[in-house]
Please model this.
Amino acid sequence: MQEQTKKITEAVIDQKLAEKIANIKKEKALDYLAKLQKHQHTLNTLHFYGTTLEEVNIHKSDEYFSTWFQDANNGDIHAMHSILDHFEPLEIITNMGHNYRSRFSENSAEIILDFRPDQVTPQFHYELDGADLLKRPLTLEERKENIKPYLYSCILRIAKELMLYFPLNKISFLVNCPTIKMDKKVLSVTSEQVQYFLENKYGDTFIKTFESTVLN
Model:
């Protein structure tokens, strides 16, 4: 009888230990999924962050840099590039592994963006199965859908930064992306469009709205 009681007690202890381990695994899995979701949201909302108008106005009022901005406002291309090199408003774009080339003209600019999303976007789909975190490679279509909002937000971030620093009404983009084939299509973003996306919270309609306005 004592032996049987001992076995029952051990079984109960083993079950509780297994449940505790499973709960710990599940908590870690949920935490990882939450971090992935937060990371993706950060990528998709880059255009809401960065330089502010107040910061640019401080630069413009600086005795040393005011001449640069005056020359840039008068269309001096060299002054524009000097401002970009010094203040680096697009540093986040290059830090994420992308490259860009810029060309300025009167009240407009052209950007060639070499967009390389695979360095920072997820390559796998994760799903919780009980206490286990399952993963599988994303399909090409799933990767495209993950990358689109990130790409569109990068375009808006670049446009916003350049329009804060320079009197630009429109910026054209030629995007080279190995995953999303843009077919050498030139995108044009106006200052009104940038302002519209800044005034509206990021949500499920972001991709559709961007594609129906900027890509249309």
Notes: The two ends are 80 Å apart (CA to CA).
